[in-house]
Design a protein that fits this description.
The chain is α+β, with helices and mostly antiparallel strands and 98 residues long. It has helices at residues 38-54, 67-79, 85-92, and strands at residues 6-10, 13-20, 23-31. 39% of the residues lie in helices and 22% in strands. The radius of gyration is 20 Å and the shape is elongated. The relative contact order is 0.12.
Amino acid sequence: MAQSGELIERGGTWLVRYYDGGKRTMKKLGSVTDFPRRDDITSTFQKFMAEVNETNRPFRPDAATTVTTFVRDRYFPTVNADLRGSTLRGYKAMPIIN
């Protein structure tokens, strides 16, 4: 799931706040002297968040996820080669997966 992040101006600095590995993180994007208005830094902020969302992060079981999402997005892609076609079709036909 993509996150939107938060753009903050604090002490003459533009910061972005987002979650990385379940922990809230803040990074400096630039200074207010370089980007005096919020509109000036918005494109930099959007590019940064796009990179954060593209980064492949390891799966953490304690992260909030549903059983359906876990099975569909994590389990099936890793076991497709190991299961017979009929078994995989049977699993995918279960109401909890759809």
